[in-house]
């Protein structure tokens, strides 16, 4: 439980964000009578690179990342930091290869892009899958992590706290649209990073510095916790080859083909702002390993030295074995290690992650429901009607996501649960996007069948894993399962493309790269803002970091 001073800081922060969100959304309405769909869903195509980068990061980093990455740091060390660092590579792909086509095709949604490149059936399928994934992955899991933390800190019923946060976040998101979302996300990113840095510094001071930490890890035979890349026999089930084979399947879908994330790029002022904004996010993604994962590892070291009490997280099972429920590690770190006055900042950081993730997902659901579903059956719908449908859809999504909490709470690790779901959703979508922009012979019918059969295959494999836990399939780590499903989907689309040859329209014929050098042509900013230079710089930094922490 935390003190009244810290509670006051947390409450004032929430009210401040809601007020800023409402102001940002309503301000534009005073300038232009009514609210156009372009303004509401894409911020009038006015976003510049700093805001795009910060908003991408804020939409990605939620309360579940702060809670679960600290948990993973305590349990397995830096290993799950791969999900953060590998993201930088996929953000380079987004900036170089995907952004130009998204902006060139002038789409409001990624399903709309699939229709231009393939056909209407592909658009419909991706719209439905994107809405479902946004509800489950971006909202429900975030609610669950936030509810667990708020219950521990404030003693409030998990569902009560989740409903209150949902209503407040939904208020400014549904009223203000993407402009309100991006402005509040930019603020929330700064608060989130500030809070994460605060707890990292406190943990670092308590542990006695890097040398003292490594000495303790060596004494407890846990030095491998500092390694990002593990051997094939590692008990984590995530060896180095699973990271490099499996993550790109998850990452390309998440960063390059997921509406909730890419919508910030679609609202860019121009191509250079979109590309540099994506790369800016890539640079920020270096930080989570050091400010989200590492504090959890330092908490483990403090526990080994008797300076961090985890007894409240421990229970004894029927066999007499002590089990530590590490979901609550981050909350325990706040209550035990952070002095009064700073706790409020840490809680504000947690709320920032929670609210930014939810607001971004709600805006994307509204966009998908309006443009890709409602407008199909009502092509003459007015902008005002599209905005209204989007608002109603976002409200319904909030209700559905809250109802999923009991089911998702069964995962021992929320972060692994989140990525387990993604691993079975991503492969067919990643496949059709990669082949769509890199292979001119990828046909519409082949993409359609790959999405249908690949998605069904993913559902079947996921069900087998949960219902029959002792099968050969259930023993395959989710990262490798993602890769195997991806290979199957690639094989499917290539074979189907020969069975059903491509018939390009003038529009689709312009939406694939003729050569690998084509993305690097065209006007670009001069100097340090050149996206080519920034891509090489980010690539070099990531290779150096992996060499240092291999």
From TrEMBL:
<feature type="transmembrane region" description="Helical">
    <location>
        <begin position="238"/>
        <end position="257"/>
    </location>
</feature>
<feature type="transmembrane region" description="Helical">
    <location>
        <begin position="6"/>
        <end position="26"/>
    </location>
</feature>
<dbReference type="InterPro" id="IPR001734">
    <property type="entry name" value="Na/solute_symporter"/>
</dbReference>
<feature type="transmembrane region" description="Helical">
    <location>
        <begin position="47"/>
        <end position="71"/>
    </location>
</feature>
<feature type="transmembrane region" description="Helical">
    <location>
        <begin position="386"/>
        <end position="409"/>
    </location>
</feature>
<feature type="transmembrane region" description="Helical">
    <location>
        <begin position="83"/>
        <end position="103"/>
    </location>
</feature>
<feature type="transmembrane region" description="Helical">
    <location>
        <begin position="476"/>
        <end position="500"/>
    </location>
</feature>
<feature type="transmembrane region" description="Helical">
    <location>
        <begin position="531"/>
        <end position="549"/>
    </location>
</feature>
<keyword id="KW-0812">Transmembrane</keyword>
<feature type="transmembrane region" description="Helical">
    <location>
        <begin position="156"/>
        <end position="178"/>
    </location>
</feature>
<keyword id="KW-1133">Transmembrane helix</keyword>
<feature type="transmembrane region" description="Helical">
    <location>
        <begin position="342"/>
        <end position="365"/>
    </location>
</feature>
<dbReference type="GO" id="GO:0005886">
    <property type="term" value="C:plasma membrane"/>
</dbReference>
<feature type="transmembrane region" description="Helical">
    <location>
        <begin position="421"/>
        <end position="439"/>
    </location>
</feature>
<dbReference type="GO" id="GO:0005412">
    <property type="term" value="F:D-glucose:sodium symporter activity"/>
</dbReference>
<dbReference type="InterPro" id="IPR038377">
    <property type="entry name" value="Na/Glc_symporter_sf"/>
</dbReference>
<protein>
    <submittedName>
        <fullName>Sodium:solute symporter</fullName>
    </submittedName>
</protein>
<feature type="transmembrane region" description="Helical">
    <location>
        <begin position="278"/>
        <end position="303"/>
    </location>
</feature>
<feature type="transmembrane region" description="Helical">
    <location>
        <begin position="190"/>
        <end position="208"/>
    </location>
</feature>
<feature type="transmembrane region" description="Helical">
    <location>
        <begin position="124"/>
        <end position="150"/>
    </location>
</feature>
<keyword id="KW-0472">Membrane</keyword>
<comment type="similarity">
    <text>Belongs to the sodium:solute symporter (SSF) (TC 2.A.21) family.</text>
</comment>
<feature type="transmembrane region" description="Helical">
    <location>
        <begin position="446"/>
        <end position="464"/>
    </location>
</feature>
<dbReference type="Pfam" id="PF00474">
    <property type="entry name" value="SSF"/>
</dbReference>
